[in-house]
């Protein structure tokens, strides 16, 4: 395996991860602006590969046409149409990027086969995500389908991060990893699960807001009408905050500042504080639409950073063990050359 091939895969993988996060943000904007049905058909948009710019470009009876297909409330809105169409275009771009990432991963199939398998899985997951997107549209934005769509996006980005980190396992330094407390790995795993639970609850809150907004457009009373899941979601954020800050504190104490894991831990702290701050703003300002996509987007970034820290720990400890074994073997050979007997031979 040449260094250039490893570097090429890393560049493709990181670019794809960034693109997926861009898509998550755009998807949040689609949801916040109510643009999910901006294109009432799939894969075309109002029957065209390039959406119309004005209602005059549509048949005079287009509303009746889509009402017959089960979309009685279809009304052309160029802004919503192009927001949804941009979402689809970025999704296609990600599919292309993941395809090339999968091709690049073939160089690992002998020495590091898991990289190849993860990349192949990510590609087929994106294909399935595209199909699932069509089902979301066909279901007229069924809440359960939207939640599943979001969770699959988190899985895809997690698999891509795992593939990139796995490809770099030989160069990930284990410096300071053994000084982290024994409970660090367990706590971090629990924190990642908690983050996913919090995202699912946030999606359910968002679904409740959509239902309330259809019957009452007075934002100032929306929070009062939200179900119990909103209070659980809001209270759970305190547990998320303190558990993540414990993770950051342990890394800050035990990992050298030059190590990438240290910088990811600081990023995690910033993301956690920013997410909670936006949550407070949404609560105080009656859930302004502008902040809604950023809230989910930051939560997604938090989950990705947590996975990265987890893999730094995993591969860093493995690398540290390999280096220790190599050093031990060198010392053993040196002593053995003198004819001395060493313990553990």
Detailed description of the structure:
By secondary structure, the protein is mainly α. The chain has 2 domains: 1-53 and 76-168; 175-322, Four Helix Bundle (Hemerythrin (Met), subunit A) (Up-down Bundle). Helix content is 72%, strand content 0%. It has 10 helices and no strands.
User: How does CATH name the architecture of the largest domain?
Assistant: Up-down Bundle
User: Could you tell me how far the N terminus lies from the C terminus, measured between alpha carbons in angstroms?
Assistant: 33 Å
Q: In angstroms, what is the radius of gyration?
A: 24 Å
How many domains is the backbone divided into?
A: 2
Residue-averaged pLDDT: 85
How many beta-strand segments?
A: 0
Give the CATH class of the largest domain: Mainly Alpha
CATH topology of the largest domain: Four Helix Bundle (Hemerythrin (Met), subunit A)
What characterizes the major β-sheet? Answer: none
Taking pLDDT < 50 over at least 5 consecutive residues as the criterion, the unreliable ranges are 330-345
Q: So what's the oligomer here?
A: single chain
Structure classification: mainly alpha
Coarse morphology: flat
- Secondary-structure element series: HHHHHHHHHH
**How much of the residues is beta strand, in percent?**
under 5%
What percentage of residues falls in helices of 4 or more residues? over 70%
Number of helices: 10
